[in-house]
Amino acid sequence: MFNFFYDDDEVAKQKVLSYLNEQNITLQKINNLLLNNQNNSNTIYLLGKFNHLGIGISVDEQKAFDLYQKAANLGNSLGINDLGKFNWNINLGGCYEKGIGTDIDYQKAFELYQKAANLGYSSGINNLGHCYQNGIGTDIDKEKAFKLYQNAAELGDSSGINNLGYCYQIGIGTDIDKKKAFELYQRAADLGNSSGIYNLGLCYRNGIGTDIDKKKAFELHQKAADLGDSFGVNSLGYCYLNGIGTYIDKEKAFKLYQKAADLGNSFGINNLGNLYQYGIGTDIDKKKDLNYIKKLQI
């Protein structure tokens, strides 16, 4: 179950729910199991995750933070990492990065990812690469980011593999190699990583490291969307709006952009605003268009 949390929060939640359903484990049963086994750092961490994602219980970010902190204090690498990050994999460092249950502290987030990475935790190594790539709690160092993604990828971390692919695609800390980017996205997709599936769809849609195959692009965006990936949902809307690998359905495009926007995807928010502005798949509503523009500026 721990591997599910390498994905985005919504995707991870759906994977957990599907797994529990396949195993005929009720949400009440798993939550009781976690509550009754709080001497183990892994179950403490999992309970924190369930509180953070709202799996079988209401979302409680403060409780999630406290449980990640408790797991981290016991030396749990997942707890340390999760206290550092919120947007990607919600780890102890993630709480400080995104202000979950505490004030935002990028320096603290960086230190926690560094600690998790030193323990050999692949997700911590990947998140540390994210810090160096984007200057979170440290100076930007794209070569260091590339090496950390490479290290995480070598450990089999699906997000690290996907991020390494992105480095090769646009030349972050290395030379551009679109064929290698395609191969890495394929590898991440094969591991079930929703971002890898989405990026692989982009490769087929735009001919990045492979031939253009719009039907395959549509299928991959659909697969990423089914996993709850906001970028996949947004891109699926784009496919329906423009007839990429499928028929044109502007109302369906509108609904998908709405879903992506509800998930907080900035591209989805922008696209939804455009549809309201021009009355595509819905009635013209300039007021709503303005509201979405303001939402992007927050």
TrEMBL record:
<dbReference type="Pfam" id="PF08238">
    <property type="entry name" value="Sel1"/>
</dbReference>
<dbReference type="InterPro" id="IPR052945">
    <property type="entry name" value="Mitotic_Regulator"/>
</dbReference>
<dbReference type="InterPro" id="IPR011990">
    <property type="entry name" value="TPR-like_helical_dom_sf"/>
</dbReference>
<dbReference type="InterPro" id="IPR006597">
    <property type="entry name" value="Sel1-like"/>
</dbReference>
<protein>
    <submittedName>
        <fullName>Skt5p</fullName>
    </submittedName>
</protein>
